[in-house]
Description:
The protein is of the alpha/beta class.
Amino acid sequence: MAAVTVAPHGAVTVITVDNPPVNALSQAVREGIATSVAAAEADDNCEAIIIACDGRTFIAGADIKEFGKPPLEPYLPDVVNAIEACDKPVIAAIHGTALGGGFEIAMGCHYRIAAKSAAVGLPEVNLGLLPGASGTQRLPRLTGVAKALDMMLSGKPVKAPAALASGAIDEVSEGDDLVADALEFAKECIERGPRRIRDLTVPEVDASVFDETRKKIAPRTRGLISPEKIIQAVELSTQVSFDEGCAKEREFFLECMASPQSAGLRHAFFAERAVGKVPGVEKDTPVRDLNSVAVIGAGTMGAGIAYNCLTSGMSVTLTDNSDEGLERGAETIRKLYAGGVERGKISESDMKAGLDRFATSQDYIDLSEVDIVIEAVFENMAVKKEVFGALDKVLKPGAVLATNTSTLSIDEIASATSRPEDVIGLHFFSPAHIMRLLEIVKGADTSSEIIATSLALAKRLRKVGVVVGNCFGFVGNRMLYSYGRENQLLLLEGAAPEYIDKTLYDWGMAMGPNAVGDLAGLDVGYKVRQERTDLPDDPRFYRVADMLAEQGRYGQKTGKGMYLYEDGSRKPTPDPEVGAMIQSEAERLGVERREISEEEIIERCIYGLVVEGARILEDGIATRSSDIDVVWINGYGFPRHRGGPMHYADSVGLDKVYEKVCEFEERFGSTYWEPPALLKKLAASGGKFADL
Ligand code: 3H9
């Protein structure tokens, strides 16, 4: 089937793109559009041209799979320019989403009509790029600078009615038949003749808008190249000719495309789409209907999960073993809703409908008809087994039994029930209604139907679900132990908490590990370590965190932990007392203190992650290395533009990583740094984790 087909409709030629799944601009599509437009232009019977798409969407952009490979003619900017140069009116008929190069094709057209449900956008920034087919020069001419900057820097698509109001499109189709409406609109366009965006001037704007925008976006674009390039390109649209602006845009685009940042972001894009493909879980695996959920445990996590389910349209029963706990949980949910309404994220009526679907109970008997339970009680095996044993007695057949444990064995929890095939881990990350990651932990007996159902639930909750195997800490927390271990050792060896935090923050982590510890509560990890029987025989292991927890310094919640938090503030202030405590503990343990470079901090913490990630792959706990990347980007604040720890290691080169790990083994011993066989093998063969 040809990717582009042509059909005459009286005096109008309709060019239709059909390149599933999202009509990306592959070479065949570019060529098909270019030759079809040229043929229609040469056709004496044709008075106007419509470019439309089959399938679920208008063109969703350049074909990202072609990026990084040698470019093939015809190039997209040339195709867009050829459309615009056509002497017959060309109209884009947009349904679904016209994104990136797709919207640039639409802006090459002389007119744009969109279905009411459609959206247009330039999301290249999410891939570390800027629009590269003259979008930075055309959009400001259509909408003005401020709107254009907003669309390109946020990457967010704009719905048809708002796009119409801003001038990005010319007409909204209210009916069910977009092409029929486009044919009608074409009559008007024939009267008006071609309207070329290149001939428009950018509306006047105060030049200060560019610096103001830089300041506004700085906190969320830390270390990124492409947002600055977008601002520069749009600024040029107000200063130089259209063609000069396009030439500069091309230069910026190629620079961004060649950057490791764009490679990391593109990797993250495909990695997040690969997680849905789980070996043994076929596409047609039946998925259970989940409309009602019971959340067991009304603490911060339980309330967050309940709120997340409510805002996704489910009915929720929250349970707790104390009246007080239940009331606190319900209050948290009411406050989250009120906050959402105040910020304009939720309407009053959605809040009311959500709270109408919300109930509390202290009796498991009330849960007999729910479709799924998510347990979020205290992290203790005996308690969890008791809860699951009791739930097993009351839940209807077919109900999903999920635990939010962050470390404990799913199989042991499942053993407390008569239906281990229905038991699964759903590991949410705090705050549960915000963090995008859902680690889906399959036990030895978990059925593929329950895994498929959990993946569908993740989507419904607007999360990325990653299916992982059952071991202590699964993927995320198992690796966190290695990362945290190196942080803790570095503290004893002489690096101050704020120095380590700043170094890793500047490298791109959302927060430094010591600030994270204080936020999560140092008592939490302390209690988990107390329960573990498999920890290394090393008095330095998490010694600083244990020492602080033993002194009741739990972090933000007690006003002091690794840092001080004065007068209820959440801003960490270095505490000289902690410095002195660490120093005397290091002396007691005979740890030599020294100057530590930023490079060493980064290499020890990040390669600590990579080494554990390689072991996780060896053990078959993660399906593919990119799944590990998705876990760390979405659950642990790993910089997305570095593509996740395994992609980062691939980009450094596994031979170099291996060499460094061997050096650390020499310096610090084999307990933590013995290179995994997989790393050694890949390093020797010039391979990558991504090739596995
Ligand atoms: C660009 O255009 C640069 C230009 O300015 C200049 C060039 C010179 N290419 O997300 P889904 C695949 S940069 C190739 O699950 P949804 C995706 O991998 C581009 N493949 O569906 C998946 O494959 P699989 C600017 C693509 O309905 C399948 O399609 N455009 C592309 O949830 C379904 O994807 C963008 O950044 C692509 N461009 O969401 C848009 N897009 O089934 C990126 C998707 O094998 N795309 N695939 O796993 C999206 O945002 C969403 O895919 C979309 C649909 C909203 C379109």
